[in-house]
Design a protein that fits this description.
alpha+beta, globular, single chain
Length: 81
């Protein structure tokens, strides 16, 4: 899975989302992302054939990252546990 475009803001949001979901930039699963609109990005990851995804509106806030991270973990929890 590769990212459609490289954008510093989206890369920072992706890194922050990994912190929120998995507790570290180098922990957890890799994310892909793509731009849906000027201010909306789609982030996706996959584990054992199961997909988890969230859409975030930029600029992201700490609260939106925590919620998005929780949603990702909830989506993956069924396949990981």
């Amino acid at each position: 899975m590769s990212n459609v475009s490289s954008n510093p803001v989206a890369e920072a949001a992706c890194s922050a989302l990994r912190w929120a979901a998995f507790g570290g930039r180098h922990r957890g699963l890799p994310f892909t992302y793509r731009q849906l609109t000027d201010e909306r990005w789609h982030f996706e990851t996959e584990y054992d054939g199961n997909r988890a995804w969230v859409d975030l509106e930029l600029p992201v806030t700490p609260l939106s990252l925590l919620i998005a991270g929780a949603v990702l973990i909830q989506q993956l929890n069924c396949s990981m546990g």
